[in-house]
Specification:
10 helices; alpha+beta; about 325 residues; 7-stranded mixed sheet; 3 domains; transmembrane; 9 strands; single chain
Length: about 325
Amino acid sequence: MSIFQPAINQGEWHGMGSASSLSSSSSSIIQAQHSNQLRTIAATTLPAAIPPTANITSLTPLSSSPSSTFSTSSTLPIIIPHQQSSGQNKVPTEEQSGQVNINMGLKSELFILLGIKGWRRTLELAQIHVPNSMDDHKFFKALLREYKRRRGLWRLWFSVWQLRYCDFVKFEKFRPGRIIVSKKHDIPEDLLYEYSPRPPHADVPPIQPEEFEIALSSCNSSCFFWLFHDCVGTPQGSDALERIPKRRGEFELKSGAREYAWGLEAHHTISFLRMLIYHLIIFAGPFAFWGWWQSDHPWDLQDASIPLAAVCALLSLFWGSSGTLRFIRERG
């Protein structure tokens, strides 16, 4: 018995080796089946964002036993689609960023439209740029500068109609470069215009004519005519500028489309000083003729007064006509 015992043990050893190889083969079969199952699950459940070359079949057994479980945490890369919570860390697209840049640019470029009666039958439109550093004093100086530039030399120096205040109006562009007043005493509700307060809390007009007139006729610190007129100091702060509608971006004048815009229209009234000067000039000729005639004909008062009587009659007809008074009332 002892002679055959080692042989038996050796056979048992070979049998055990065969069993081990069978176990290894079954382990490979099980591994292949698991790989196929995982492939099927991944194809049906994982999102399309996972690349087709993702490694989902490499499985590493925890032990050499057939009953051992397999770990997939380190060999199955799952790409989760980018989920973005609303209102947090939003990255603007190219179109959105361009729109934001345009809006920012428009906010920084503010303009106040000023309609002025020049030599043409339609209004001359000035667009006053309003930087962030502008206050009431600088704005009214810029307004007067644009008014003088577009009013024209003859109307500025020789017309009896002089600037008194500005009215808040709605402009209409019906042809390229042709602007008229579409509606008087109007302020915009469009968000393209920036001012405060806005409707329904805003007054119409936001600035009264008396306040506008005082701001336009303010004097410098060294005024030499304080004995002859009501001397008013320069405005302080930016309260008036905040009330005036300011357009974001320039108003396109050369386009042919009919468009509307809101701004200021220069309002004129008759200057008493200029009317007095013109009347003195008119009477200067007849009085000069009177003196010259009296120097040669001291006894002839009737002939000397003929030019003066004619001028007085013509002026009376001019001021007494209903058309002149109606025109002054309409313009005033």
